[in-house]
Amino acid sequence: MAFDYDLFIIGAGSGGVRAARIAAGYGARVGIAEESRVGGTCVIRGCVPKKLLVYASHFGEDFEDADGYGWSVPKPSFDWARLIANKDKEIDRLNQAYKSTLAKAGVELIESRAELVDQHTISIGGKQVRAEVILIATGSWPELPKLPGIEHAISSNECFHLETLPERVVVVGGGYIALEFAGIFNGLGSKTTVLYRGEQVLRGFDGDVRNFLQDELVKKGIDVRCHTNVTRIDKVAGGLAVTLDDGTAIHCDQVLYATGRRPLTRNMGLERIGVALDDVGAIKVDGWSKSSMPNIYAVGDCTNRVNLTPVAIREGHAFADSVFGNKPWMIDHSDFPSAVFTQPPVATVGETEERARAKYGAVDIYRETFRPMKHTMTGRPERTLMKLVVDRKSQAVVGAHMVGQDAPEIIQTLAIAVKLKATKQQIDQTIAIHPTAAEEFVTMRTPVAAE
Ligand code: NDP
């Protein structure tokens, strides 16, 4: 039977849009469905608006720091509504840019929810269409635990549209989103408390990074409470009361839950037509992003592999090249860099010290902590951490970690060296750019821990 499309994609986020554009470039007839806004989590309610809010939240310190450099700044004031309106304008611009990218590529956009009827049939906007190949790129959605009063809490989605800046915020969780928003609210002047159930925030990151960041967050004025669980949330006069497992309560104006995200795969016919999902609802795929059905593929957060925008984009690109471009390649998920846009930010690539010790046995650790040059004249107590993890036998640099200003910019470049398996000696041969913070990475001569 004839198909309406060579490829039909459900979800116009980072992964879906890249796959659509590349496949269309190979001459495929491509349709793409989006039930919300084109651009997906990253552009509409994730990385991009978050980074804009992070920029906004840093100005308070910048005004203070200017004093050490001879500037007298009158007491600044901040207007949340103006920030949100300007952010919305920029997101609208990007949304339009994504739409015009699709149009220019000849991709048909259908702004409606899509569901699978069978292996080749999609129900959308009151009609059914048929496609030879289907790509699911539906992303993920915040997951809030069930507890009394959870309906009073918000997720990161709502943070972008609050009418006012809350005076007091409680953030639950100790991962990327919790800490990034804690930094935003704290920087903008909200009294911010982070409640984390474990020993130390950022589980899975290098131990030194976790320690160091937690200290820096506390120095910034964030009240970080570990080993702390919420038992209930109640509406009370003047705000919300968050009751903790030790029986005490914190009063605040907003409670943000950032306790993880779940693949967005429910109620779209996947299980019914036989696409295998794992126990958290992620679509099971092979290295080619192919699901348990031979013509149905999936990329991005809905597969719960590495849930980062640039990874979803690569997965979408590899899929389109492989299936429509006769250029098969598989994405390599190893040694991916990532950043947490806290204040100061964290960035990391490759192995943590803990994982490297387990994997390689003997490792050499190079570590420096210092006060950034800028703050010698501001008096701010912020410090920077840099760390290299080296496999002692091969001398390959297998991990690089940083907490400090510009860490994401610096680690992005260092990630190339880690990916190319550069040795410590090769890094040492690199001439420093002076004076920078990044130069520390090429001048760390003596390992700190040898065992
Ligand atoms: P994370 O998985 O990073 O963090 C979730 C946090 O919530 C953890 O600290 C976890 O604790 C805690 N938690 C989970 N369940 C509960 C519960 N029932 N009660 C209390 N605490 C709980 O998820 P995020 O939501 O922060 O982000 C989702 C993903 O999105 C990230 O993992 C990342 O892949 C991506 N992302 C990337 C960003 C970037 O690149 N800068 C920014 C934002 C998101 P525990 O550690 O004990 O499990």
Task: Provide an overview of this structure.
The chain has 451 residues and is α/β, with parallel strands linked by helices. The chain folds into three domains: 5-141 and 262-324, FAD/NAD(P)-binding domain (3-Layer(bba) Sandwich), CATH 3.50.50.60; 150-259, FAD/NAD(P)-binding domain (3-Layer(bba) Sandwich); 338-443, Enolase-like, domain 1, CATH 3.30.390. It is built from twelve helices and 22 strands. The chain has helices spanning 14-25, 40-45, 47-66, 80-104, 156-159, 176-188, 207-219, 270-273, 309-324, 353-360, 407-419, 424-429, and strands at 5-10, 30-33, 108-110, 114-116, 121-124, 127-136, 140-142, 168-172, 191-195, 223-225, 230-236, 239-244, 249-252, 254-257, 261-263, 296-298, 338-340, 346-350, 363-370, 384-391, 397-403, 449-450. Strands 1, 2, 3, 4, 5, 6 and 16 form a seven-stranded mixed β-sheet that branches. Strands 17-18-21-20-19-22 form a six-stranded antiparallel β-sheet, sandwiched between helices. Strand 5 (121-124) and strand 6 (127-136) form a beta hairpin. Helix 1 packs parallel to helix 9 (309-324). The longest helix has 25 residues, at 80-104. The chain is globular and about 70 Å long. The termini are far apart. The mean pLDDT is 97. The structure holds NADPH dihydro-nicotinamide-adenine-dinucleotide phosphate. NADPH dihydro-nicotinamide-adenine-dinucleotide phosphate binds next to helix 6 and strand 17.
